[in-house]
Amino acid sequence: MTIIAGFSLLISFFILLLIGVPIAISMAGASIVTMLLIAPFDVAVFTSAQKMVTGIDSFTLLAVPFFLLTGIIMNQGGIALRLVNVAKLFTGRLPGSLAHTNIVGNMLFGSLAGSSVASAAAIGKVMQPLQEKEGYDRKFSAAVNIASAPTGLIIPPTGLFIIYSLVSGGTSVAALFLAGYIPGILWGMATMAVAYIIAKQRGYTTPHKVPLRAAMKVLWDAVPSLFLIIIIIGGITGGIFTATEASAVAVLYALLLSFAYRSLSIKQLPGILKETAELTVVIMFLIGTSAMLALVMAFTGIPAAISEGILSLTDNPILILILINIILLLIGTFMDVTPAILIFTPIFLPVVSEFGMSPVHFGVVLIVNLCIGNITPPGGSALYVGSKVGKVKMEEVIRPLLPFYAAVIAVLMLITLLPILSEWLPRLAGLM
């Protein structure tokens, strides 16, 4: 029965995807078709609908729309330019300084906006004209922006860790947030290393040193924006408020800050709220349909069967992790991060738990894996946005991205094989 259900679920899911049905509806359709093999029609439909509703009935999930709203407010509230100016202070003396500014800008803004697409668009729009003016090759500039855009999905606060926490059975959000810092920074540093080598080879110029007074002014302007990270992470890890409460505080803070900067008006709020509502509906519908899929898989024993199948191939944890990484890297090339987390967490988490891998460590490995898919063809959303902002064709930027792909995959392997990179900060905070 497990084999029949597995084939039914897989075949119906991919047939629906191939004919152009949206992924959330494909998950729902495949779940119902498979449920019909094991239950009467009325029971299958009622159970599936009930599971879809209970799947999104979670206080923790309230953090998702609030963090989305925070990111959209900051994207339109003049935050990006201030963070770019801060990044210039730390990278201005390096060869290819504007490329490094782009990377650090993505790390800072992305961690606040929680979106690789928003980061690639906002920072790319600021940096592309500056790099072009300094004689940087457009394809190189676009590659730098694209390669560093997903860092904001790993460096907290990020909604992906909240979704993973829910699907993994309640892994600590605070522990996951802290676990994302070192891997996210390593990703950024790896892209900076590649950019440094290429800039050195091409002789890209270095701007003059920024006067101390000007530097202090830039820092002073950006401190309120950077303080948001301290409020959120400090509040959660310090037990002052939950992740959901922190997300609501973040909305209020971002709104007040944008009004203080006079870069946001009351007239823009309806549009911001509409965009947030549209994104929230998409994500919640995905989570609801994935709950249906999880019910079917659990009922038919598919995750246990896959776990036994993988473990029967080898009992070497390193080989199993490499195999899972390869599968997730392939999945990430055509599937968005959120649905992939929802689908593959219940499949692979039991496998890695067999040899003692912590849910926190696996969560970071899973998300870093899938974030690489954000910048790879054919489905990389940050790749398309970054190409458009960089004024180059997507096909033209793939070759310049190759050394960045190699660097990021090297970071992925380090994170996979060295649990301390993900677990050190949570353990230091007493969360593991």
UniProtKB/TrEMBL annotation:
Protein topology in the membrane: Multi-pass membrane protein
Entry GO terms, CC: plasma membrane
GO molecular function, one term: transmembrane transporter activity
InterPro entries, per the entry: DctM, TRAP_DctM
Start and end residues of each TRAP C4-dicarboxylate transport system permease DctM subunit domain: 10-419
Pfam (any one): DctM
This protein's UniProt keywords: Cell inner membrane, Cell membrane, Membrane, Transmembrane, Transmembrane helix, Transport
Function description: Part of the tripartite ATP-independent periplasmic (TRAP) transport system.
Assembly information from the UniProt record: The complex comprises the extracytoplasmic solute receptor protein and the two transmembrane proteins.
Name of protein: TRAP transporter large permease protein
Gene source species: Halomonas citrativorans
